[in-house]
Amino acid sequence: MAPAAINEPPRLDVAALKAAAGPQAPVVDLRSFAHFNNTPGIGTEFRAAGDYRDKSGKPILALRDILDDPASLRALGRLVSERGVVFFRDADISTDEQLKLVHALGLLGGKPETSGLHVNPCTAPGQKEGDEVARISNNYVFGEKFKRDQSTMLLRRVGKLSWHSDITYEPVPSDYACLTIRTVPETGGDTLWASAYDAFDRLSPPMRKFLEGLTALHKGVGFIQLARKFGIPEFRENRGSPENVGQALEAVHPVVRTHPITGWKGLFVNREFTQRIVELTPYESDQLLEFLFNHISDNQDIQVRFRWEPHSVAIWDNRCTFHTATFDLDNNVREGTRGLSLGEKPYLDPNSLTRREALEKQGVKPQS
Ligand SMILES: [Fe+2]
Predict the structure, then answer these.
(1) What GO CC terms are in its UniProt record (predicted)?
(2) Which domains, and CATH codes, for the chain?
(3) pTM of the prediction?
(4) Which residues surround ligand 1, an ion (CB under 5 A)?
(5) Could you report the per-residue pLDDT of 311-353, keeping only the tens digit for each?
(6) Which tens digit of pLDDT belongs to each residue from 28-57?
(7) How far is the CA of 166 from the centre of ligand 1 (A)?
(8) Label partner for 302 (CA 20 to 30 A): which of 41, 201, 260, 319?
(9) Which sequence positions are flagged as catalytic?
């Protein structure tokens, strides 16, 4: 069977975008707008207009005001890559704008021009929002076609088991992602992110050194099981990059990767997709991965938890974070849309530094 329809990146004038953010462009410092860091290590939130808690006197940054400004978008991409995830409140954004935003952030960050937007392997062609928009819902998977099982307290997924970076089973995985929740429950369904920079910095130097010599196999096992369950005969190809093809849904990546924008090292394994460490025996691999997965999920000092409100927007960098939903919704509806940009093939630059090492070298406090 011929490959299904190839996804089309949103029509952006790449040359104009890059030129407008080139060396001559004004340097934008988004920290000059009213914001706060959610935790020392991860998360920055821009204040919404009228937020009585803000005493900084700084101007309010509206996401809408910078969607067409390449210099500001370049600064936003850098901030997301440094802080892992950036939040906006009262930022009404269409699905098309979500796609353009993440694609522009990736291009301005220097991703290969062959990297477009991801199409989930199980997405049926021609869904109403477009194939590149992922519908995030606690009721359905992959659009409105497949209903999830009813969730009860005893059938809730275990949050600790769901930490992941998006689509690491792809040879060219994601850089930037943008999620907004359009049907917001009164309470419940928070999202948590964890810093891959801090996860790595929190390991002892001998352990870090050991991990730097390793690679790991990632596989989309959950999607393979879902396809079997729902009778999906074939996965989509290509999935946003000429390298994201094939029906195996697997890729080998370094266990520690260097972020191309910050230059910082981060841990790059996750419980949802990482199957085994290639260079170790199966027993060694299982034990070490279990330790690393627990290291990510059990240390709340490297995590941030975000409560969704109407028109909240989260933009994160999958190269340096992990995330999970909170499975406390029962029958309350929570639905949103996500755009997912593809970045570059993960790599480790042996000369790169950890986040703490780099900031200390610059004389900067890690939480600033
Ligand atoms: Fe995800």
Answers:
(1) cytoplasm
(2) 20-361 (3.60.130.10)
(3) 0.94
(4) 166
(5) 999 999 999 999 999 999 888 899 999 999 999 999 999 999 9
(6) 999 999 999 999 999 999 999 999 999 999
(7) 5
(8) 260
(9) 164, 166, 323, 338
